[in-house]
Write a structure and sequence with these properties.
Number of helices: 15
CATH class of the largest domain: Mainly Alpha
CATH superfamily of the largest domain: Intergrase catalytic core
Number of domains: 3
Shape: elongated
Order of helices and strands: EEEEEHHHHHHHHHHEEEHHHHH
């Protein structure tokens, strides 16, 4: 049995006096699904499935017309599935309804949300980055106030930020079973949504889709403060990775070799999985290559150092292919065995940058080796080395202080 109805804020998250979302509820075999209409009003205005005017509002006719349009589109899509005897996919219906129904006033044939989805689909992006944009679109649809181009404004961005901070972080069944308490989205998660939206709006600005990016007036805001420390391995810890001998051919063995590959190339995980040895050319007995990073498209300069060549020979000049999640799980286990806390894939890249600088490589050249977009990114590794130097200064200062006290 399938029924359709209009409901107000089914999650009950709207505070008193604020505008909340009006949604289409699709009930399939007693299980409800919700599709945001993009209409937001105070609760007292939504009466018996329709919006009423108050003494301060005069837009009920327009909003009710929009609700009828969205509801009709939903009904048509449901009926089409029934006629074609297809399984009813509410997520697919939601996408189609918004594609057809959200553009208004003749401003644009494509909604802002659909444009972002289309760009994410057609751009050369990693799977993870593409999924971030899809997740952003889902959040924008859930929020309902930034779905059209004409919705963009500084005020709208501020409101979106406040709304994101009130959203619950999704917990998996395993996390719930482990006793993790529900919590609101933190600055890191919220900042990721702003970063994705800002990036897409910059693309829209470049091609003339919009005249201004509202984020340009908000420079420095909504940015997550990154940790000052960069996680990397010392030369002693690097040697421990080289010395460990897992069961040959096991997944642990493959994870160790992949990490060694990262430690001595500086390649990010996604770049290792696209590695192609045939692109390298032998020059004076050394294998060299100039390529582009998958994530950013920034050129990088690479040469295969002896530990890397050993790994490649072991796998017939290929790199072990591993799922990123599984790879990090195995690295964590390896780290526990050799006494390295929180060993993870990106630590290999950080280790390469820090190690090359410690060997005397120029910071400008390390930046090219790693394909950084600017030298500021590489300076993180120089700061790490400076910290090590200051630690040694502290050690010497303590010894001098002890000698002085002993004399006294």
């Amino acid at each position: 049995m399938i029924t359709l109805s209009l409901v107000y804020d089914h999650r009950g998250r709207t505070r008193k006096g604020e505008d909340g979302p009006v949604e289409v509820r699709v009930t399939i075999n007693r299980k409800p699904y919700y599709i945001n209409t993009g209409v937001r009003v105070c609760k007292n205005r939504f009466v018996a499935g329709t919006i009423k005017d108050t003494k301060d509002t005069h837009d009920a006719d327009i909003l009710n017309e929009r609700l009828r349009t969205i509801a009709t589109l939903v009904e048509q899509e449901v009926n089409r599935c029934l006629d074609e005897r297809k399984e009813i996919d509410v997520a697919d219906i939601r996408r189609k309804v918004w594609s057809l129904g959200v553009a208004q006033d003749g401003v644009d044939d494509t909604s802002l949300v659909d444009w972002i989805k289309e760009r994410a689909k057609t751009l050369s992006l990693s799977k993870g980055t593409r999924m971030k944009y899809y997740t952003l679109c889902n959040k924008m649809l859930e929020y309902g106030k930034i779905t059209r181009w004409q919705d963009l404004s500084v005020e709208a961005i501020y409101d979106f930020d406040a709304w994101l901070h009130q959203q619950d972080v999704h917990l998996s069944e395993n996390q719930l079973r482990a006793g993790m308490e529900p919590r609101k989205m933190g600055d890191t998660g919220v900042s990721a949504y702003h970063k994705s939206l800002r990036a897409m709006l910059n693309r829209a600005l470049k091609i003339g889709k919009i005249d201004a990016n509202p984020y340009d007036r908000l420079r420095g805001e909504f940015k997550h403060t990154k940790r000052e420390t960069t996680e990397y391995l010392t030369e002693e810890q690097m040697q421990k990775i080289l010395d460990i001998e897992p069961v040959p051919g096991s997944q642990v063995d493959m994870a160790r070799d992949l990490f060694i590959f990262q430690m001595y190339t500086g390649l990010a995980y996604i770049d290792t999985q696209r590695f192609d040895a045939t692109q390298y050319r032998e020059v004076d007995g050394k294998w060299k290559f100039i390529g582009e990073r998958v994530k950013t498209g920034v050129p990088y300069v690479s040469m295969l150092l002896p530990p890397v060549v050993e790994v490649l020979k072991k796998y017939d000049w290929h790199v072990p292919i591993m799922n990123n999640q599984k790879y990090n799980q195995l690295l964590k286990a390896i780290g526990m065995v050799i006494g390295i806390e929180r060993l993870h894939s990106h630590m290999g890249r950080h280790t390469f940058g820090t190690w090359m600088l410690s060997q005397g490589a120029k910071i400008e050249n390390v930046s090219r080796m790693m394909g950084h977009t600017n030298i500021t990114q590489t300076q993180r590794y120089a700061k790490v080395l400076a910290k090590d130097v200051y630690d040694d200064f502290d050690m010497v200062a303590e010894k001098l202080e002890k000698k002085k006290k002993a004399k006294d």
